[in-house]
Amino acid sequence: MSAVLQSSGKGKRPAAPVLPSPAAANAAAASFAALTARLDYLDQAEIEQVRKAYRFADEAHLGQIRASGEPYITHPIAVAAQCAEWKLDAQALMAALLHDAIEDCGVTKPQLIERFGAPVAELVDGLTKLDKLQFNTREENQAESFRKMLLAMARDVRVILIKLADRTHNMRTLDDVPREKWARISSETLEIYAPIAHRLGLNLTYRELQELAFRHLRPWRYAVLSKAVTKARNRRRDLIQKVHREVESSFAEAGIQVRISGREKTLYSVYRKMDEKHLSFAQVTDIYGFRVIVPSVLECYTALGLLHQMYKPVPGKFKDHIAIPKVNGYQSLHTTLVGPSGVNVEFQMRTEAMHLVAESGVAAHWLYKASDLDGDNADRLGTKWLQSLLDIQHETRDAAEFWDHVKIDLFPDAVYVFTPKSQIMALPRGATVVDFAYAIHSNIGDRTVAAKINGVQVPLRTELKNGDVVEVVTAPVSTPNPAWLGFVRTGRARSKIRHHLKSLAQVESQELGEKLLTQALRAEGLEKLPADDEEHHSIWEKLLRFTGSRSRDELLTDIGLGKRIASIVAKRLTTMLAAERGEKPDALLITRERYTAHENVSQGEVTLDGSENASVQFATCCRPVPGDEIVGYLGRGEGLVVHTEDCAVARRLQHKDSERFISVEWADEPVRPFETSLLVTVINGKGVLARVAAALASAEADITHVDMGDEKAQDATDLRFIVAVRDKAHLDGAMRVLKRTPSVLRVQRVRPGGAG
Q: For the chain, first and last CA: distance in Å?
């Protein structure tokens, strides 16, 4: 297979006294004839389809030359030839021939759909997307993530198989590439593509990719090891032949039909063993081994027993991959025995079906599962390996199921995305931009204000997909939004948001508590709160014992959250200051506070401008806006809840819990808009929602939520909006604009208790 291009053309030429010229050899390699001999498993119509794809690719790549000087089309032909070795279906072979057409020739996906159908175009598009991925870090965990991401991105396993064929041919022709690129391409092959081939069970491809990468990455070590292995092979030839003869005769005596073949460790695996275990070449004992292929599973275990009677097994060197197969479906019994002259020899026992899966991988596994294996269809398996993959998927569903199982094992519900610097992040499936931001750093998450995916601005709740390049925009003044808790997926993001909101609420509640206690003290005739210093230390200690709080901050936070009533704490503090320090209440201050404030003055008055965040909530039952008459309720542990004065809920609370109400008023210039509810009754018709939304937009009222109800649309339909307005005057203006809108019958603000 290593000389697909070079030999296939020459093999078709008549014998001649001189070798063909390089130009003639190139022309042969670039012709469809280089591929036809391998397509005998396809029918004539399918071969014609593949020929069409070849003609299209040949025309598209016309004039393009590879680094070797060959016409570029030789590369797609070699990739298709490798796929034909694996008996891939016609669609996959067409995609292999066209795999560089979108990227290098300006051909578009719609063109491919028109000429060759959607399945082929999807395969080519999948390959093009994989080609755009850049792996540019040497960290091992990054390599693992990259491998998983490649597999996750390939919705169809054929994309990965074609990609592996593409990489294999590129590695075979790496000598023609400038030497400074060898290290990068070889490292990438070793770290990314060889392990993928291994995971999919493509053993021959796995070994070849490793060997080619090792030869180009460490040329000197490769040459030295190659010589050493050749010498050892020559030295031990007699010994290996002796073991082969003894094993064969032993199986013949036992009446077991067996096929024995030698197996040699790859140079790269010898090198890696020496490197990892700090061994010399002489200490690597299992360079040679035997593969024993028997008719049935039972005979695998019988063969093991026979071998253990012939030679002593090395303790701890037995593995049963038949009872417990590897992830990629590999099954065999492995044992290492002490052979003649004390040389360790490894044996692998397997059936023909297991051998096919071991050498040929994931597709053979599907075919094996799709039919019971006997002598006849062992041949069928060998010749029709992976034939018409789509047919298998449609007929048995086994192929799709098996690929899903492989994927689940590799990445349980994960997505793999890039940072702008090409670092790979693994996140749970369904993770959003906010999860990504917190995965980088909690400070990044806390300050996130916007995001881009693949250069396009997206909402923060956007779910990430494999291969996305995610860029987060932050602002120093930004803080986490409680609404994020509704869509984040990772525990880290959720806990960080909650922690921040809790800390924020505590700070704000403490500030509110201090304001409330100061105002309650003024109502008692004291100008300000005692300072938190040495002088007033004993006063604060006694007050904390009275309230049961652990610290001054906790007491103020409890007052802000409504767990303590400021007027009661203020009265106690006034009494203590008078008794201990002789600080008498100021009668004038008491009079001024009582007659200038609200009638319910016990806790003073709080001014609201919308900047209070977590410590102050605006009740959703009545949704007050600046300009409404309002009251404040210090709920137990909820902080300050603001209602409109005529709110039915507030009135009920006032009736049973009046001491918890405090006077509140709007600031002259609130710093943000406030939400309120509108009920708009409309004549149902085409475009009515758009007209209502346009009317609100023209009045500069932002729609934050719209509800059309679940009932079937009638002639007259109710639309419920939550809109953000500056104040009551702004709301009245928006309602006037709505009333003038065609199709609108009635507009009313939703008031507590259902009143309009």
A: 83
Note the Cα 477 to chain centre separation in Å: 29
- pTM value is 0.48
What count of Cα atoms within 13 Å lies in the side-chain half-sphere of residue 294?
24
Distance, CA of 198 to CA of 506 (rounded, Å)? 55
Gap between the Cα atoms of 381 and 608, Å rounded: 79
Residue 165 CB coordination number (10 Å): 25
pLDDT tens digits for 678-730? 999 988 888 888 889 999 999 999 888 888 776 666 678 888 999 999 999 99
Summarize pLDDT for 468-489 with one digit per residue, the tens. 889 999 988 788 887 788 888 8
* Residue 266: strand, helix, or coil: coil
Whether 516 and 604 have beta carbons less than 8 Å apart is answered as yes
Q: Which two tokens stand for residue 455?
A: 């250069």
- 388 sits in the region (left: phi over 0; alpha: psi -120 to 50; else beta) called left
What distance in Å separates the CA atoms of residue 327 and residue 409, rounded to the nearest whole number? 8
Residue 653 sits in the same domain as residue 531: yes
Q: Are residues 175 and 244 in the same domain?
A: no
Beta strand 661-666 with 630-635 is: antiparallel
**Rounded-to-integer distance, Cα 446 and Cα 434, Å:** 9
Six-digit token pair at 604?
């003073």
From CA 290, how far away is CA 350, in angstroms rounded? 11
Domain-ending residue, one of 605, 632, 666:
666
Enclosing domain of residue 278: 225-360
Q: Which of 237, 226, 157 is nearest to 197 (CA)?
A: 157
Active site residues: 103-104
CATH number of the domain at 170, please. Answer: 1.10.3210.10
**Continuous segment of H or E residues that includes residue 504:** helix 491-523
Give the strand order in the sheet containing 702-707: 702-707, 716-725, 674-683, 744-749
Measured in degrees and rounded to the nearest 5, phi and psi for residue 121 equal: -60, -40
Q: Look up residue 746 and give its DSSP letter.
A: E
Are 315 and 458 in a shared domain? no
DSSP characters over 523-534: HTT-SSPPPSSS
> 58 is written with which tokens?
């040949």
Counting the structural domains of the chain, the total is 5
Alpha helices in 615-718 (DSSP H): 648-656, 688-698
Which residues, listed in sequence order, are joined to residue 46 by a DSSP beta bridge?
Answer: none
C-alpha 356/C-alpha 360 separation (Å) is 6
User: 3-state DSSP call for residue 406?
Assistant: helix
Q: What is the DSSP string of 321-336?
A: TTTS--TT----EEEE
Q: What distance in Å separates the CA atoms of residue 390 and residue 377, rounded to the nearest whole number?
A: 20
**How confident is the model over 636-652, as pLDDT tens digits?**
656 678 899 888 888 88
